[in-house]
Amino acid sequence: MTSLSTKAVHAGREDLVDLGLHAAPIDLSTTYPSRDCLTEAARLDEAAEGTDLGEQPVYARLGNPTVGRFERALAELEGSDTSVAFASGMAALSACLLACVASGRPHVVAVRPLYGTTDHLVASGLLGNQVSWSTVDGVAAAIRPDTGLVIAESPANPNLSEVDIRALAAACGDVPLLVDNTFATPVLQRPVEQGARIVVHSATKFLGGHGDVMGGVVACGEEFARALRQIRFATGGVLHPLAGYLLLRGLATLPVRIRAASRTAEELATRLAAHPVVSRVHRPGIGGPMVSFEVHGDPAAVVGAVRLVTPAVSLGSVDTLIQHPASISHHIMTEQDRHGAGISDQLLRLSVGLEDVDDLWADLDQALHNAKS
Ligand code: MET
């Protein structure tokens, strides 16, 4: 399989024909019976060291075969050795941060902007990390002997700014670069190909694609994956098998959804740029379904006035969503940090779905007229 579209449909499903199945089986077992305690003890020792136990994981906190299909498929799409799935994007990021602390390198260098709760988790030191905030140019100088990670998000939540991942990876030297690839998805960008060693997703967004499943995943090399599995085993932030099933199903249509929504987003961005109420439009150079824009007047009035577009935080669904980052996705940050990260109070974030472009525009246009003050 060489093409991404083909991988998206077939990865994680290679054995289904031999099993006589068309859809992936959902294994809801919480425990895996065995009459051989001594073998179980040996397998628990392996799990405690971070080994993936595959089909019979002793207990569901150690692994799940349905989730394993999603993990294999996502790794194939991102071009990584493997991936490790979690209950949410924040659980996935937490495991990465805890892995740094556990390895004795609790310091991270982070490039703003990042998703608001990521920023908060890193800045608060809740998990025992210290942080140095840096520009891309300052990363090499900010790295210390106890630096365990460099963290960036590109395109970034919420203003869609991008970093040169290849240049950033070079500046990191031996320190692993973690890129949050939630907004780009492997359809538009595969950070591992550009030197990133760790790729994090909130799978809740485009990977699931329908607003009905929460999950997170880390695509990485086997060594870091072992550290993540140890942490997942001990802390329990596992992805539910039904979520694993839905995420695998979501991957099959990911390229089609991303390409269709990207075309609509491009057209909406053009129309927004010409609208008298809009002062600035943000679009990633790599394209994609996200458009952010700043308005004259009251951004909250625009959110309150949409009738077709869904007024909700989150992104990546089949329907178009709008939210006000200063009020919701980045509300947890201090105003000073938000402004310092380039996140204007006038900014609105639009996640474009699969509706007709003219229907979406008619709704946005009437809502924008409500923002005039
Ligand atoms: C609870 S706030 C945000 C959820 C999600 N990560 C977003 O950016 O929309």
What would your notes on this structure say?
This protein is of the alpha/beta class and 373 residues long. The chain folds into 2 domains: 4-253, 3-Layer(aba) Sandwich (Aspartate Aminotransferase, domain 2), CATH 3.40.640.10; 255-369, Aspartate Aminotransferase, domain 1 (Alpha-Beta Complex). It is built from 14 helices and 12 strands. The protein has helices at 4-10, 16-19, 37-48, 65-78, 89-102, 116-124, 139-142, 165-172, 185-188, 222-235, 241-273, 299-305, 335-340, 357-369; strands at residues 82-86, 107-110, 130-133, 147-153, 177-180, 198-202, 216-220, 278-282, 290-295, 310-311, 321-323, 347-351. Strands 1-7-6-5-4-2-3 form a 7-stranded mixed beta sheet, sandwiched between helices. β4 (147-153), α8 (165-172) and β5 form a beta-alpha-beta unit. α1 runs antiparallel to α11 and α5 (89-102) crosses α10. The protein starts with a helix and ends with a helix. 51% of the residues are buried. The model has no long low-confidence stretch (mean pLDDT 97). Methionine (MET) binds next to loops.
